[in-house]
Amino acid sequence: MDSTLAAYSIKREGYDIIGVHFSYGQRTQQKELRSFHAICDDLHVLQRHTLQLDFFKDIGASALTDRNITVPTGGIESGVPVTYVPFRNGIFLSIAAAIAEKEGAEVLGIGVVEEDSSGYPDCTETFIDSMTQSINAGTKEDTILRIATPLIHLKKEAIVLKALQYHVPLHLTWSCYQNERLACGVCDSCRLRLKGFALADTSDPIPYETVT
Amino acid sequence: MDSTLAAYSIKREGYDIIGVHFSYGQRTQQKELRSFHAICDDLHVLQRHTLQLDFFKDIGASALTDRNITVPTGGIESGVPVTYVPFRNGIFLSIAAAIAEKEGAEVLGIGVVEEDSSGYPDCTETFIDSMTQSINAGTKEDTILRIATPLIHLKKEAIVLKALQYHVPLHLTWSCYQNERLACGVCDSCRLRLKGFALADTSDPIPYETVT
């Protein structure tokens, strides 16, 4: 939902979108890849990069990529959760920067949310600002990239409301950390999503196994 | 040669080494992987990560990863050469940061050389300093990483002399951009290496096809 709204927001600013999808061994990677293509179709994205990042499984250390670590379903706790994938967004942005440099793109878009989120360190404005600097320092002089984070300071209900306003196909998006057919409704990602829909006083079009 | 000296330098500071090797579709990846293991054996590195980064081939845009772009052999020119792989060291350091965070490592070592090199933007101290900040901002609060760049301000001859002083097994290292059996002797990487040995007034133990 967040990445999708980011893409629609950036498209509304007048940019053509190059879609980038990462399969990094996350539990729901096949569902997410299908969602990616369906959303790209809706957004008329012609150029798509679907990258297979198998090495994340070797690194492991996260409930999303290591099947021996259980995805927590008891509610959001403070601190960095076990679903944190070490420096994931740093890796994603670095790879996206390489694609952007090759394609002559101007903006990298990412749907990070700072406050109303799971508490991942790689979703903060401090990190994004520093990463912008690193990318511009480490690429060619005439490669000048901005990282657009249209959701970074939004609450989850504002994300839902803006997605509705921008006609984002929410039924095509997927947030659940563990299931591909029916969203579990109880992992942190489902809980945050459902909280957004509840506070926005509207219903989520995707199917759930359990709604708490 | 540069990565190897970096590893030996950091080992001498008293650190245990975790070896990380990237096969990213570079022309000499099999030779480099064999060299990696032989060097790790010599350095008694027990923990080794060998990562397959196939997505670099999809990105292409470099003579190292795209077989349709010829590796230049006419001598080093000013500017960023066609062997530049977009944001390669940014991607490498991001992945290494994830491994370091998982393993609780303190230092990321990289053999970048700023002045006496091919002119890649991702080999500069400005980039490394910024990347250090990004990695620390985008990882957990108790993950504190330093990037060690023991070669960054060395000239090529100083690299050769220090490697000899530290008993680096130079015969196991490989620098050529295009060949795996006999180093070509004429690509930028061979030229820089050979210049270092010549100025250090010693001979390179690896076999060459051509020595200019």
Question: How would you sum up this structure, described in words?
Answer:
The structure is a homodimer of 212-residue chains. With 212 residues, chain A is mainly alpha-helical. Chain A is 39% helix and 8% strand. Chain A has one domain (2-199): 3-Layer(aba) Sandwich (Rossmann fold), CATH 3.40.50. Chain A is globular, with a radius of gyration of 17 Å. The interface between A and B is large, with 43 and 43 residues.
Q: Return the average pLDDT of chain A rounded to an integer.
A: 95
In helices, the fraction of residues of chain A equals 25-40%
Largest sheet of chain A: 2 strands, parallel
Order of helices and strands of chain A: HEHEHHEHEHH
Strand order across the biggest sheet of chain A? 1-2
CATH topological fold name of chain A: Rossmann fold
So what's the oligomer here? homodimer
Q: Would you spell out the secondary-structure blueprint of this structure?
A:
Two copies of one chain form a homodimer.
Chain A: H1 2-12, E1 18-23, H2 29-42, E2 47-52, H3 55-59, H4 88-103, E3 107-109, H5 125-138, E4 146-148, H6 156-165, H7 188-199
Parallel strand pairs in A: 1-2, 3-4
Short summary:
Two copies of one chain form a homodimer. Chain A has about 210 residues and is mainly α.
